[in-house]
Amino acid sequence: MNLREKYHIPNDSIITIAGTVGVGKSTMTNALADALKFKTSFEKVDTNPYLEKFYADFERWSFHLQVYFLAERFKEQKKIFEYGGGFIQDRSIYEDTGIFAKMHYENGTMSKTDYETYKNLFDAMVMTPYFPHPDLLIYLEGSFDEVLKRIQERGREMERSTPISYWEEMYNRYENWINNFNACPILRINISDYDLMKEENSVEPILEKIGHFIQQSRRWEARELIK
Ligand SMILES: Nc1ncnc2c1ncn2[C@@H]1O[C@H](COP(=O)(O)OP(=O)(O)O)[C@@H](O)[C@H]1O
Ligand SMILES: Nc1ncnc2c1ncn2[C@H]1C[C@H](O)[C@@H](COP(=O)(O)O)O1
């Protein structure tokens, strides 16, 4: 019996990994996809034509970057829809608007007009049949010091040279965002409770929780449909 069957995880599941920059989303995405034999949907950092420019000048590039991310994520959503699920997704589309665009607008590094244009586009895109909400959003959390250490150690120069206050504000916004998030079921996991780098088996307790959560929420959805 494979791990997907062992933990009763449906093969059409869509699982999204959320959390602040550097917390460990990509690592978790790879580990879960490997264990479940699911496909992955990643944010492409190396080929993003705006990201470095954005870190050098938020005001000039924040709108361009948000539109770019939105287009990329929408293409990924469409792909997930067309395959009929079976995906682990690195970062949710909800974070683009709920964290990044909002933060830059509220800090004055995105204009009101640009923010409204972006929000209109976002709302129009998300309200289409191509947009399957995930079965589960796994929220990775940990101490700010550990997150900062991981950003430093990963070594993307544009992130290392960004002021710590930027990461601190993002960290705090994430806490607030997740406490108010209700678009799909959430599983919160603390990064100090597992170590995917050193202990191969540490993915299994996570799979067990995922299976339990998805079973529960699908039963709930089935009951709602009958009502
Ligand atoms: N469980 C872990 N223990 C130690 N380091 C980790 C762990 N998970 C990820 N990392 C490291 O932290 C850094 C950021 O991880 P990554 O998965 O790229 O985060 P994200 O996708 O959230 O930005 C990487 O250098 C990665 O190797
Ligand atoms: N929507 C976004 N706006 C600004 N910056 C973003 C957005 N989505 C991702 N990013 C940045 C943050 C990091 O520098 C890279 C990749 O994120 P990661 O959390 O490391 O996967 O892109």
Automatic annotation (TrEMBL):
Keyword Kinase: yes
Keyword set, alphabetical order: Kinase, Transferase
Origin: domain of life: Bacteria
Record domain Deoxynucleoside kinase: where: 15-214
Matches recorded under InterPro entries: DCK/DGK (IPR002624), Deoxyribonucleoside_kinase (IPR050566), DNK_dom (IPR031314), P-loop_NTPase (IPR027417)
Pfam families (UniProt xref): dNK (PF01712)
Gene3D superfamilies noted in UniProt: P-loop containing nucleotide triphosphate hydrolases
MF GO annotations: kinase activity
Similarity comment: Belongs to the DCK/DGK family.
Protein name stated in the entry: Deoxynucleoside kinase
Lineage: Bacteria, Bacillati, Bacillota, Bacilli, Bacillales
